[in-house]
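Quick one - inputs below.
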Amino acid sequence: MSNLESNGSAPLLEVQHLRKTFGGRGGKPGPIVAVDDISFSLEPGECLAVVGESGSGKSTLARTLLRLVDADSGCVLYQGKDLLKVTHSEMQRQRRFLQMVFQDPYASLHPRRNVAQLISEPWEVHDGIVEKSSRKERIEALLAEVNLPKHFISYYPNQMSGGQRQRVAIARALALEPKILILDEPVSALDVSVQAQVIKVLMSLQERRGLAYIFISHDLPLVRLVAHKVAVMNRGQFVETGSTEEIFSNPRHEYTKSLLASSPSAGEFENAH
Amino acid sequence: MVLQSTPIVASSRITRWRASPKWQMFTSSPLAVASAAWLIFVVVLAFVVAPLVVDQANHQTIAMRFYAPFRLDKGFEFFLGADSLGRPIMLQLIVGARTSVLIAIFAVSISAAIGYAVGVVSGYFGGWIDNILLRLADIIHTVPSLLMALVVLFILQPSIFNLIIVLGITRIPVYLRTSRTQTMEVRERMFVEVSKAIGASNWRIITRDIAPLVFPTIRTLAMLEVSAVILSAASLTFLGIGLQRPDVDWGMMVSDGRAYLKSAWFVAVFPGIVIVLTALSANILSNWLRAVEDPAQSTLFFRAKKKRGAAEE
Amino acid sequence: MSKLLEISGLRISFESGFGKVDAVRGVNLTMDMGDAVAVVGASGSGKTVLGRSLLGLVDAPGVVRGSIKFGGEEIVGKSEKELRDIRGLGIGMVFQDALDGLNPVYTIGSQLSEIFTVRLGLSRSAAKSRAVSIMEQVGIRRASERYHDYPHQFSGGMRQRICIAMAIGLKPKILIADEPTTALDVTVQAGILRLIKDLQAETGMGLIFVTHDLAVARTISTRIVVMYAGQIVEEGPTEEVFRFPKHPYTKALLAAHPARVRSWRDLEPIPDAFVTDPSSGETTGHSSPSIVITN
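Output:
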């Protein structure tokens, strides 16, 4: 696992021996281990893919990093500061640097708010980031960044397609100028045919802004396109980690091999070329 | 099927639709218009006309006893006849409206506000507070509200104020349970977690994300409760522990007229009709509001308008 | 001899006080025993409604016009009672969400064997042994023990296998599978796809597989039908469609598929003109030069 740990100066994000169990009472560890001794580090501009199937603990891992669920032990060092130890209010402030895009754009946007309200909500939570007077301009700029036309500003979620909604969710995550985006299956709720636009938006954003991504997915062909390094997760553990090339061309762990073999398209499409 | 409109084509229409969608929907629904008109009429009678006719309404003329309705020879005020003491029923109805409306509005507001607030907070946090509140609601709920009102009003003096308090408190559990259940459902929705992820506080999540989604249900419930409360007040008066003369409400009028149903049906029937009409109007209006507030239904409505518009072009 | 399935001029529209929506507009399709047809399209393309119409499962206010002949017998216009004979015995269906297809309060075994007692008139014990054997056939281990388990005691993949067992239990001539693997993990998906393929080879039934994923379509089918806005825009042998797509929409679908490119930069998002409005089946752009919608 050494290839995922930092060398030299402190990385943007460093996770050490993170552990999360469920079913425990009164703050004690429980019998169900969701995240088991996970360590990795992340540099600016990097995309780490966490690959696994449902129940592997990958979504719990994401939520633990943001303290949406509380970890049992371990550290999450963001620029050297342990997010698991800071106070609740300090965590609220730190959250602006780590943002998350959720899987289902049909569920993650409040149904009664239009795009302008959705995107400006983070600015109401975190004072002094964008002044009221310049908000409209900023919203339009954010919409442009995710390839949506200006007039979407007044749309409500039910007036948009899944791909459009997900791009609004991305624009909102960007509103706080985060350094790290956690993408929890960002396109798996979308038709394959509309995944491409969302992926292109995400990847050009990363290129432009130097964001670090934690890309959680079960879709190997997609991971091959976007990730710099891959961690294969099974039963709460990283069973194999490495650069994207290594994992795809020379998988070592049995589980990785079976994942690659199961993917309906990966092998066959390549033969067609 | 997920309903989605066509953004690029529809943009100009959406802005126009936003301008006054509910008003458009409202005017195109005759039943809703009629119900609203009746409720406004009652409120105007209760608060504008009633103060002017109190003395006349309570003036007893034994000669006019059980004067039959639909005749104008004794003046317009006796158009709906007179009661057992020769008081004009029409004016009694107007004065009674004030009491009934006051009781309904205040009792419903008290129980809805408390039940809504407590229900949302208790549903969001859960835990032991939630448990205690729920058991408390259970207790209030299991004691028949009429029995409780009976006891309380027997101990306290029967007055409009006490009647409002008693009716208000006994109806709290209805709202508490509803808002709590709905909050627990909304709490699990993804956008709540999204709000947490951007760093929103619990207070903000409750007031901005959850409460607005629970509100339409509470409002619908409150409007249904208007009729329930008017009827409860009527039954308390009927049992003789509600209001005391010279205060009068519709329930009291029905109860007074009951004894003479065979000889002078109109004494009980007119206030009865007014109670039914008011309760019905509140129900119709609340159902209509719920339909409009439902995003799926209003989107359908909007789409239909759009399609019709497109066909005309 | 008549074809196994012959659809001609099929039109399905949903009419209500709010207007009319055409979900399927003029579809012709034939298939024989042993055919594996993948119906590929985005959500809103009409592919799901098409699948459901074969079983007479289009509910009011949906209106079905045209002709669907199953073994020479017309399905459109049949009464609910006549349709019941075709459902299951003639045509079986597997849905996307396996939980919807199973009743949570009965054991898997009782739901499976009920099919045999009610539809085939088998005795209880015969039905049970039949149910156990079909559970084994769809790859459920220790079938006779798990016979007494309830749906929630099975994983998503296992539940989908049970749904498949229910669909093929009466040996239908056609199996319709509507995105049966979309909700499942890749490794589980691979297993289900293999199972369906094997079952088809064994029984020689016709397969109609509805999906939005071209890669899945490729693994399962011998023939591909591409649907767009309620119409079939391209049809042909699977490998041919992949190698030499003719219709611009098919080409666009292929260019947008993550498994077809080397880098995200090469992904080509579907042009807006092709993005359908799921509620109406119409395109959002007024001008889609490459698509001619004939009514």
